């Protein structure tokens, strides 16, 4: 191993320098909107100043460390780097909101975190927000939907490594070459956004609204350019188009490849496809029936009302077709909490526990019950169907899923408890924090511009941990702690050695 190779903290710093230059370019993209809205040029400084500082800082770091061969990321450094990339991106990207003078640090970080994690909760009054800032919010959804690492990998090939790619929550290496997989996913993502924009234009939206809502739907983000969101349009065609785009966004990219290649059998037999179909059909029928029986008067078409809200919850998009979530019956909100926690498909832009993990958990429970009822010690092989294969479930698969789901639910209960400490009911607290940790964006009014800072920071942590799927963040914290502990121990040993010599 060469002594002059970049490794350890210097290697992490090198990659962060690249990220800073990328962020600088990202910050000036919303200014393209000035071509259509030149009257908003007075806000140019909000983007140009942080962009220039970010690019300059990143280049200085890159210049100082250039020319040296790069070592492989050491054990757990991939998780540390992913977390650092996300934290750095959120801090740098919150600067434009800060420079407007309308938002404090907490509010700016909340808005950007909500965008990058594709949550859609907001402290921005969109009715009094410029077009370039609305575009900027949409840009955060676009980047967050596929992830920073995927975009960087797509641009600069495999140098960031497969481990780093998977640490961000991707399990969708569709082709043997990682960079080609990233570009394929990126192409699909752009294709669906274009499709969504065209559909919305046909349904009557203007170009600006159509593009922004298409990105929000496909990224399962939920930011809207209208105060009332999709509800404000009162359009059946727009609601149906949105349902289609939300389902596309929450479906694994691997499943999309099967569909595009004409492998319809693999598509329909995929475990998540079957599970989501069963879940949506059963909950929509149950909810619509209960809405009718209880005399809910909110909307005329109860089936469409139930379908839109439940699809939005399961896909973790956060659009709504009712005036207020608080107007819905308690049983309906309870069903939505469950669907928000389950979330979308593994390897999609959606959040939540993910349907694949829930299916594995259910299969494990079923297998355990079957074994408990059988007096003889018989080993049953349990398989789970993926789009391209049949996979045998082993003991470690069950354990990993049980651990993840347990941690997820514990974190959910903790965040809900914090919200309830501010006087909110248990139901509202659980609904709001389920929306945060599963990166949904539906709200009963707890988070917002005037929310207490503790509530906003609790929501920020929920969105951040939920987007990076808990274990990556915990792994990063533990690795950093052990590295710091090892560094301190090494310094103490050197100090003692010098003392003995003296």
Q: What would your notes on this structure say?
A:
By secondary structure, this protein is mainly alpha-helical. It is 65% helix and 2% strand. It contains 21 helices and two strands. A hairpin with a 2-residue loop joins strand 1 and strand 2 (389-392). Helix 5 (105-116) crosses helix 6, helix 5 packs parallel to helix 20 (453-467) and helix 18 runs antiparallel to helix 20.
Q: What value does the average pLDDT take?
A: 87
Low-confidence stretches are none
Largest sheet, in brief, is: 2 strands, antiparallel
Per DSSP, the total helix count is: 21
* SSE series: HHHHHHHHHHHHHHHHHEEHHHH
Itemize the secondary structure elements and their pairings:
Layout: H1 8-28, H2 45-65, H3 77-93, H4 95-99, H5 105-116, H6 131-146, H7 148-156, H8 162-167, H9 178-202, H10 207-218, H11 236-249, H12 253-260, H13 264-269, H14 271-293, H15 302-314, H16 330-342, H17 355-373, E1 383-386, E2 389-392, H18 395-420, H19 426-437, H20 453-467, H21 471-501
Antiparallel strand pairs: 1-2
Helix pairs in contact: 1-2, 1-3, 3-21, 5-6, 5-20, 6-10, 7-9, 9-10, 9-11, 11-15, 14-15, 15-16, 16-19, 17-18, 18-19, 18-20
Primary descriptors:
502 residues, mainly alpha, two-stranded antiparallel sheet, 21 helices, globular
Briefly, what is this?
65% of the residues lie in helices and 2% in strands. With 502 residues, it is mainly α. The two termini are 34 Å apart.
């Amino acid at each position: 191993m060469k002594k002059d190779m970049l490794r350890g903290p210097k290697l992490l710093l090198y990659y962060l320098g690249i990220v800073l230059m990328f962020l600088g370019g990202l910050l000036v993209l919303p200014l393209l909107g000035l071509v259509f809205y030149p009257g908003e040029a007075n806000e140019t400084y909000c983007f140009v100043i942080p962009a220039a500082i970010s690019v300059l800082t990143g280049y200085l770091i890159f210049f100082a460390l250039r020319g040296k061969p790069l070592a492989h990321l050491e054990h757990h450094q991939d998780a540390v780097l992913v977390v650092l990339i996300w934290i750095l991106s959120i801090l740098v990207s919150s600067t434009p909101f800060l420079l407007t003078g309308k938002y404090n640090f907490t509010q700016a970080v909340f808005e950007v975190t909500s965008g990058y994690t594709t949550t859609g909760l907001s402290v921005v009054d969109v009715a009094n927000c410029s077009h370039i800032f609305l575009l900027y919010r949409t840009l955060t959804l676009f980047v967050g939907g596929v992830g920073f690492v995927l975009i960087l990998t797509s641009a600069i090939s495999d140098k960031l490594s497969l481990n780093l790619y998977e640490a961000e929550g991707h399990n969708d290496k569709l082709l043997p070459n990682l960079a080609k997989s990233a570009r394929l996913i990126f192409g699909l993502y752009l294709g669906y956004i274009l499709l969504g924009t065209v559909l919305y234009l046909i349904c009557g939206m203007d170009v600006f609204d159509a593009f922004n809502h298409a990105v929000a739907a496909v990224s399962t983000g939920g930011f809207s350019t209208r105060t009332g969101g999709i509800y404000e349009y009162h359009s059946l065609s727009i609601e149906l188009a949105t349902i289609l785009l939300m389902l596309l966004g929450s479906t694994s990219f691997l499943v999309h490849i099967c569909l595009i290649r004409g492998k319809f059998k693999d598509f329909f037999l995929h475990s998540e496809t079957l599970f989501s179909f069963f879940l949506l059909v059963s909950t929509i029928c149950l909810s619509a029936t209960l809405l009718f029986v209880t005399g809910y008067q909110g909307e005329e078409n109860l089936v469409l009302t139930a379908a839109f809200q439940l699809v939005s919850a399961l896909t973790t998009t956060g659009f709504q077709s009712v005036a207020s979530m608080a107007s819905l019956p308690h049983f309906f909100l309870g069903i939505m909490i469950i669907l928000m926690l389950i979330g979308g498909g593994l390897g999609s832009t959606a959040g939540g526990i993910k349907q694949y993990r829930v299916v594995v958990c259910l299969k494990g429970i079923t297998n355990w019950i079957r074994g408990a009822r059988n007096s003889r010690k018989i080993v049953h092989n349990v398989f789970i169907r993926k789009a391209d294969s049949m996979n045998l479930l082993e003991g470690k698969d069950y354990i990993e899923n049980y651990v993840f789901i347990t941690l997820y639910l514990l974190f959910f209960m903790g965040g809900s408890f914090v919200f309830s400490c501010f006087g909110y009911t248990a139901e509202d607290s659980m609904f709001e924090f389920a929306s945060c940790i599963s990166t949904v964006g539906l709200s009963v009014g707890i988070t917002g511009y005037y929310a207490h800072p503790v509530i906003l920071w609790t929501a920020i942590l929920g969105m951040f941990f939920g987007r990076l799927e808990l274990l990556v963040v915990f792994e990063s914290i533990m690795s950093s702690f052990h590295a710091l502990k090892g560094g301190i121990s090494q310094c103490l040993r050197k100090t003692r050695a010098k003392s003995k010599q003296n």
